Inverse folding.
């Protein structure tokens, strides 16, 4: 009985025609009669007590239907569930603090939703946000990971005695003993900073309540429609049958769309029921930078103990993990970092300790790679440094430490994120390394080409790194295969699709078993009405787990079809074959039935279905792997650096990858190419820059730089296939692979291009500006220079000096005159003094910002007449807030007075988020304007120039 | 991210536009809108009214002047300039800079006048116009005036335009023989605002010495910066050493801002390196006999 | 409210619009042409790219009222599900899309580009695509698709040996 192979072929995708013709349904495309639109009011402060929310102004606006804050949600208001409990690791500490639907009592990151306005259009809803009045008491932000754990750090969650979210230690062997015997111990501090997932489609939720049927339908850009349905049904107090969640076409997932019970996801269905009208919320890009989860802030202090021949004796790693304001996703990300660090290597002794830390930043959950990047970065960088220090070639040191093929399954003796021991199922690392080195021309490059190029003044370098990826974890997925009487094959599974090609790869698996064409299999995913058991698309598990379930269901249907045909033809099943949509007699192919005919026979209108069999040509099967399968790979890259401008050009990028059996090589290569693009972004272009007040300074795609077609080379690929023994298809996941080792690779290649300059790269993301800083610093202080990621503390600073001819006391009085004060503050409209307070308004217009109005409140402090005073400034308006302290010092100078002033202002809201490019220039201009204005005002007052 | 409400007024003619701006003193002129509309979508800009200039046919087009220079209507779209044979021949510096202005889709809508009037310190065209020694025609209700590019840009996003006045045309002087130009910038990604950039227009005399040179920089100050470090170039041979000297002078001359993409010292470095490279390249082009001339 | 009349994908359309209504929202919500996608609303991602009078523009950076009297084309004007046009077909063949969200904007960008550059170089293709972000594909398949479409549209030169 032969099967025509479809698995393994680069079949064109079933879903493409709909996507290419603009006919595919995305959540924002859902239009319902009477639909209302939601906009959320979000915190402009990273950390503040929330004492009151006044929605009356918003509710009064024409076109506004309703507005709600946490109070209005009543019992519905609850913190979200813990999505992933921490794995059972001895002695671990985990503190649960999950996100809430709308902030109550406190806000904990910029962008946290406080209220929602429902209106006839999104335009009107956004207008109304300006009318909401908040009573807030700002608190200090918690941004830096080490500072967050200081004894006097502001506490983010009042119920805990510190900002420590978790503490985990995992050990294998005895590192202390191993390092004592080491030839050398390399130790470094490594930084890896935050980015966004960057799906081009932002999140969206549409909810529609059918009061007559008591049924809720929710369209959601989620990677986990079934768990969302189950959870929302419970929250709404509805039977699961009365809640339908549809994740239609989703415009990219990359991790954050697996985060569940986002505030908006919980609030919108409630509103739809409360108002009995369909409600749509679509996240805009500005919101996406705060409202959607992020990843990647970690600081590692790591050590590598090596023998003289480069053999790894042990690794010790102590790191801090930024979990953001809440930790709904448990410890998945830091556990991944901890486990992935071990890579393809035999590490006999390992000691890994991490602390997860709450910060006043957006929530951290897995983003493509999910913590694996950090582990790979630390290990590969340590090996690079060891290679350099021991005089061993970079490829050779890796080769010497690889786990050998006969050692699989290989037990790392620690616990992975799926609660199972970290055991690699299969792998063959050396051929991948050799292949990648050959493809990039490593040997000849290092031996001949690089010295020749360097002699000609060119800085060209090559990097080569390896990594593993734990993929395809449980618990399970299911699939139902149905043959309709028309002969059409229907496949339903709970796993949604965000571009991975499930409509095709799953169809290939099924079509192969049923002897039909891939295009004949109609796949339905992500609709709880069609299939309602499953978990979701995460951890590179779709093909592995759902794919295996599809396989099992298809095999069952095939067997059912054969059994039925055998009965009808009165032959043994072994005499039959399945091909071209028919089951027929091998000896006489003209005798047989089409699958459609069999489907009809299997669902008779009269007569009886044989006892023990089920009607219909249909089967539902589930698959749950015992543990994850381990994919692996080697990436190599060649770059040229212009040391004068710190520009980096990627000349070649090679990937040799092992994801076991490939279902559709075209799709596999697409996943890798796309992963590499995201990795390049992460390594060199993308970075979320927070100031020390917790304000994100680049909340737009103008300032957050996702790579374009000009920045990503075509990846040259080769494949190694070590089938996984853990599933019937032998497949391993591939979705995240491309993105994982790119940071480590980028660092090595750029460092190699700059070899001899003393530049050492220990922080990702890198950028030309940061690279220039490294090059300059290395010139000044010699080799072994490392720089942490960009300093984040940036305030608006306005400063200057001025000399008066009057006495200090006279000047002191004059400067407190509201009229003169107003003249010094550019844009001050009016200023009134009541006691030690001034109030008034500021109108600021710079470039595109047209006459934005701010209410101004200034309190005088620290007054010493004739000597100094300070002004605590608080101004707020539609575009955000400017707050801080301005200090003025006076001193006699000859016959006059010398004044020095310096205002350090914190900027928040829209101006901080999208105006950072202008802030420095604005502060310079304002300093100059202030002085000019002061000059004029004083001249007016004294009737003569000072 | 939806704009706040405003009233919309479509101008049919220049007079119409000027009258509308008088009637609505808070109105902003809407040219290509490729900077203004994003700012409105973020609600950074909330003008109460817009006067749309896109239907004023007389503000569009590129023509050669009697003197052999160019006159570019303020509402001429970037894509038209980019494809213009006249521009390629008579203002190759401008042609070289155009592909760096944002992306194709922005260039098919954005206008030269809009970009200049916006006066973004990181924009390409203001620096190019300084290097070309262009003059701008400004029209108000009380008549027309001509302002040198160097006098037009007065600071951060500010220009010599007064209330109710519109930039209507850009006049680029004829290009002397033996003139070479070069535009270089370093941006994080192609089409982004440059971290630093430089536009050089340089003419040689018959003996191959520098007769005239203008170096204008972007993204290194609160507006485009016309370098004064080139004053001593006249009469000198355009050597690499000289170019390096000017580059180093520029490094000291500029006072660049720091932002999340580049700090001040990195921008100085880029300004110095790009100036050196652009001068060398412009001088080589000027010396080439095939250099297109007016 | 402003009355506007325009041609959208060959159909004459008359509507009343508020001045501030973005052209992208007008197409998606008022006309229910949801093939045009919105990814950033500040002119960077390119997902909303459409043709106005034949030029590729960002529909999030134009007000609907400005489109009065113009000829607008969206992805729905290209081949439909059952008969893709050659460019769409090339995208399918070269795996030029994954989630497909950015794809309509990319197709609309490429139409005028290929008319102007019938045999583009890889560099030209990449530059033409620089105003369209794609997070899934890493662009290689897209570039390949453009090459494929161009090669098929340009008949091989006659051999003049």
């Amino acid at each position: 009985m032969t099967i025509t192979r479809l698995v393994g072929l680069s079949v064109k995708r079933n879903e493409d025609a709909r996507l290419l013709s603009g006919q595919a349904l995305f959540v924002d495309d859902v239009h319902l009669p009477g639909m209302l639109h939601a906009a959320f009011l979000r915190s402009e402060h990273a950390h503040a007590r929330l004492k009151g929310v006044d929605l009356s102004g918003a509710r009064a606006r024409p076109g506004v239907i309703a507005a709600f804050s946490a109070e209005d949600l009543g019992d519905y208001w609850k913190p979200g569930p813990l999505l992933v409990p921490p794995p059972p690791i001895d002695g671990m500490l985990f503190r649960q603090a999950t996100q809430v639907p709308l902030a109550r009592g406190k806000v904990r990151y910029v962008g946290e939703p406080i209220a929602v306005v429902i209106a006839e259009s999104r335009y009107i809803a956004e207008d109304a946000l300006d009318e909401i009045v908040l009573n807030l008491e700002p608190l200090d932000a918690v941004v830096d990971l080490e500072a967050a754990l200081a004894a006097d750090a502001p506490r983010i969650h009042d119920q805990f005695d510190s900002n420590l979210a978790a503490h985990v230690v995992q050990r294998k062997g005895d590192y202390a003993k191993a390092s004592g015997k080491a030839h050398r111990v390399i130790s470094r501090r490594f930084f890896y900073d935050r980015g966004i997932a960057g799906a081009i489609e932002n999140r969206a939720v549409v909810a529609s309540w059918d009061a007559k049927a008591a049924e809720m339908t929710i369209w959601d850009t989620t990677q986990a429609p079934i768990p969302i349905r189950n959870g929302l049904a419970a929250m709404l107090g509805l039977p699961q049958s009365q809640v339908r969640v549809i994740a239609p076409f989703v415009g990219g997932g990359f991790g954050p769309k697996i985060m569940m019970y986002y505030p908006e996801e919980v609030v919108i269905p409630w509103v739809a029921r409360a108002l009995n009208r369909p409600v749509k919320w679509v996240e805009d890009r500005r919101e996406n930078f705060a409202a959607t989860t992020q990843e990647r802030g970690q600081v590692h202090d790591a050590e590598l103990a090596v023998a003289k021949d480069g053999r790894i004796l042990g690794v010790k790693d102590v790191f801090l993990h930024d979990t953001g304001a809440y930790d709904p996703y448990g410890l998945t990300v830091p556990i991944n970092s901890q486990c992935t660090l071990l890579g393809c290597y035999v590490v006999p002794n390992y000691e890994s300790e991490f602390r997860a830390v709450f910060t006043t930043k957006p929530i951290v959950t897995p983003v493509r790679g999910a913590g694996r990047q950090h582990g790979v970065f630390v290990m590969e960088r340590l090996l690079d440094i060891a290679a350099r220090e021991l005089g061993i070639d970079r490829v050779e040191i890796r080769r010497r430490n690889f786990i050998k093929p006969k050692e699989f399954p290989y037990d790392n003796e620690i616990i992975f994120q799926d609660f199972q021991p970290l055991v690699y199922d299969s792998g063959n690392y050396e051929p991948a390394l050799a292949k990648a080195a050959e493809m990039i021309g490593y040997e000849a490059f290092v031996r001949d080409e690089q010295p020749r190029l360097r002699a000609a003044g060119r800085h060209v370098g090559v990097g080569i790194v390896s990594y593993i990826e734990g993929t395809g974890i449980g618990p399970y997925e299911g699939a139902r295969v149905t043959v309709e009487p028309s002969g059409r094959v229907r496949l339903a599974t709970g796993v949604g699709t965000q571009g991975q090609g499930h409509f095709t790869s799953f169809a290939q698996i099924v079509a192969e078993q049923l002897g039909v064409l891939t295009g004949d299999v109609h796949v339905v995913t992500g609709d709880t009405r069609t299939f309602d058991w499953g978990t979701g698309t995460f951890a590179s598990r779709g093909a592995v787990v759902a794919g295996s379930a599809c396989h099992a269901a298809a095999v069952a249907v095939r067997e059912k079809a054969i059994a039925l045909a055998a009965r009808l033809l009165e032959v043994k099943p072994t005499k039959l074959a399945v091909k071209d949509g028919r089951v027929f007699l091998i000896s006489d192919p003209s005798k047989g039935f089409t699958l459609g005919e069999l489907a009809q026979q299997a669902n008779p209108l009269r007569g009886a279905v044989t006892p023990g069999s089920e009607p219909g040509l249909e089967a539902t099967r589930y698959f749950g792997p015992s543990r994850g399968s381990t994919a692996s790979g080697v990436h190599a890259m060649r770059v040229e650096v212009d040391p004068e401008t710190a520009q980096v050009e990627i000349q070649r990028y090679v990937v040799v990858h092992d994801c076991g059996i490939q279902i559709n090589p075209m799709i596999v290569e697409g996943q890798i190419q796309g992963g590499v693009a995201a990795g390049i972004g992460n390594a060199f272009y993308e970075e979320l820059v927070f100031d020390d007040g917790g304000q994100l300074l680049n909340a737009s795609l103008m300032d957050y730089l996702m790579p374009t077609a000009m920045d990503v080379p075509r990846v040259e690929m080769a494949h190694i296939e070590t089938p996984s023994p853990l599933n019937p298809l032998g497949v391993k996941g591939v979705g995240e692979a491309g993105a994982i080792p790119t940071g480590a690779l980028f660092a090595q290649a750029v460092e190699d291009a700059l070899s001899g300059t003393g530049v050492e790269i220990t922080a990702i993301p890198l950028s030309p500006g940061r690279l220039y800083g490294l090059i300059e610093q290395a010139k000044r202080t010699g080799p072994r220079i490392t720089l942490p990621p960009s300093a984040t503390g940036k305030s608006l600073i306005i400063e200057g000096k001025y000399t008066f001819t009057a006495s200090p006391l006279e000047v002191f009085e004059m400067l407190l005159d509201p009229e003169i004060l107003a003249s010094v503050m550019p844009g001050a409209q009016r200023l009134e003094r009541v006691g030690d307070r001034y109030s008034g308004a500021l109108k600021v217009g710079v470039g595109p910002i047209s006459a934005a109005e701010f209410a101004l409140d200034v309190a005088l402090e620290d007054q010493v007449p004739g000597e100094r005073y300070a002004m605590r400034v608080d101004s707020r308006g539609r575009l955000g807030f400017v707050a801080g302290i301005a200090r003025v010092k006076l001193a006699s100078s000859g016959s006059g007075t010398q004044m020095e002033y310096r205002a350090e202002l914190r900027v928040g809201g829209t101006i901080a988020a999208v105006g950072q490019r202008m802030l420095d220039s604005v502060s310079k201009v304002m300093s100059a304007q202030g002085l000019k204005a002061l000059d004029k005002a004083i001249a007016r007052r004294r009737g003569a120039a000072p | 991210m939806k704009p706040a409400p405003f009233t919309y007024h479509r101008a049919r003619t220049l007079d119409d536009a000027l009258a509308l701006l008088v009637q609505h003193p808070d109105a902003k002129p809407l040219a290509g809108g490729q900077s203004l509309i994003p700012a409105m979508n973020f609600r950074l800009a909330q003008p109460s009214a817009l006067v749309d200039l896109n239907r004023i046919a007389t503000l569009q087009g590129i023509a050669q002047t009697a003197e052999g220079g160019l006159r570019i209507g303020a509402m001429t779209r970037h894509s038209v300039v980019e494809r213009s044979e006249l521009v390629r021949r008579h203002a190759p510096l401008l042609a070289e800079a155009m592909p760096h202005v944002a992306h194709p889709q922005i260039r098919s809508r954005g206008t030269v006048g809009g970009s200049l009037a916006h006066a973004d310190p990181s924009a390409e065209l203001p620096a190019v116009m300084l290097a070309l020694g262009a003059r701008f025609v400004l029209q108000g209700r009380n008549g027309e005036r001509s302002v040198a590019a160097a006098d037009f840009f007065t600071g951060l996003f500010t220009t010599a335009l007064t209330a109710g006045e519109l930039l209507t045309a850009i006049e680029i002087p004829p290009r002397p023989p033996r003139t070479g130009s070069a535009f270089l910038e370093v941006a994080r990604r192609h089409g982004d605002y440059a971290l630093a950039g430089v536009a050089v227009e340089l003419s040689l005399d018959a003996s191959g010495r520098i007769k005239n040179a203008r170096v204008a920089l972007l993204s290194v100050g609160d507006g485009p910066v016309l370098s004064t470090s080139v004053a001593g170039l006249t009469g000198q041979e355009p050597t690499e050493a000289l170019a390096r000297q000017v580059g180093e002078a520029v490094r000291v001359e500029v006072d660049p801002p720091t932002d999340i993409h580049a700090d001040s010292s990195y921008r100085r470095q880029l300004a110095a390196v790009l100036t050196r490279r652009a001068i060398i390249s412009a001088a080589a082009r000027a010396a080439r006999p095939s250099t297109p001339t007016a | 409210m402003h009355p506007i009349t325009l041609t959208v994908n060959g159909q004459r359309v008359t509507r009343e619009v508020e001045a501030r209504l973005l052209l992208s929202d007008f197409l998606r919500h008022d006309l229910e042409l949801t093939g045009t996608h919105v990814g950033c609303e500040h002119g960077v991602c390119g997902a909303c790219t459409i043709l106005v009078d034949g030029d590729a523009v960002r529909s999030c950076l134009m007000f609907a009222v400005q489109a009065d009297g113009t000829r607008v084309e969206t992805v729905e004007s290209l081949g439909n599900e059952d008969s893709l046009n050659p460019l769409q077909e090339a995208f399918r063949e070269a795996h030029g899309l994954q989630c497909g969200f950015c794809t309509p904007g990319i197709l609309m960008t490429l139409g005028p580009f290929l008319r102007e550059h019938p045999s583009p170089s890889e560099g030209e293709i990449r530059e033409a695509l620089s105003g369209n972000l794609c997070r899934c594909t890493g662009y290689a398949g897209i570039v390949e698709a453009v090459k494929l479409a161009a090669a098929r549209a340009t008949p091989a030169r006659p051999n003049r040996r």
About this structure: Chain B touches chain A through 48 residues (CB under 8 Å). DSSP finds eleven helices and 14 strands in chain B.
